[in-house]
Specification:
Layout lengths: L5 H11 L3 E5 L28 H13 L9 H6 L11 E5 L7 H4 L5 E5 L2 H9 L11 H20 L3 E5 L4 H20 L1
Parallel strand pairs: 1-2, 3-4
Helix pairs in contact: 1-7
Length: 192
């Protein structure tokens, strides 16, 4: 969901996980001139066609082919992860975005899936405090953003498995702890 805390959570995880990097879906938006406009004049940013998804997949696959050379190992990460002496060969990529699980070519790549949710009122409140370029036009949230969120969330619920839903109204530290502990358990299983 928009303004659910995806980027904040990803950045906090990056600081405490070993050899961790982030790829952000927002970096793959098409220029405004290439984004379609509907009959109401709304720019259709909350759809897959507004993004260079093939380029995003290429970027992820490139990282997967050479994670050790991505420049993600930092002294800060090594000092803060739970057991650094056992993680020198572990590389973690966090891919964060709002339409990740609705794009087929990405679905085979995920080890873990997390989906942050927010109720309508909280999402609208948070969205109203953000400045976007181009700016949201009046009615954009109700006329495009929220309906597209519901559409893609319903598709996700029908088609994807192994998704962990997270309540974006929970404190950030609680969300961080939950996801971090889950990732550490997954790393432990992979080592066994």
């Amino acid at each position: 969901v928009t303004n659910g805390g995806k980027t904040t959570l990803a950045k906090k995880l990056q600081k405490i996980l070993p050899n961790c990097d982030i790829i952000c879906q927002d970096d793959f938006f098409k220029p405004e001139s290439e984004v379609e406009t509907d009959q109401r004049g709304f720019k259709l940013y909350d759809v897959l066609d507004a993004l260079y998804m093939d380029e995003m997949v290429k970027c992820i696959r490139s990282w997967m082919n050479n994670p050790a050379y991505s420049g993600v190992l930092t002294e800060e990460t090594q000092m803060t992860c739970i057991n650094p002496k056992n993680t020198e060969d572990v590389y973690i990529l966090i891919v964060e975005g709002f339409l990740l699980y609705n794009y087929g070519p990405l679905n085979e790549l995920w080890d873990r899936r997390y989906f942050l949710t927010l109720p309508y009122e909280e999402c609208k409140r948070r969205r109203s405090t953000r400045v976007y370029q181009p700016a949201d036009t009046p009615g954009y949230f109700d006329g495009h953003v929220w309906p597209m969120y519901l559409k893609y969330k319903n598709e996700l619920e029908e088609n994807a498995s192994n998704v962990v839903y997270l309540d974006g109204t929970k404190p950030q530290d609680e969300l961080l702890s939950h996801v971090y502990n889950d990732i550490v358990q997954e790393l432990t299983k992979q080592r066994e």
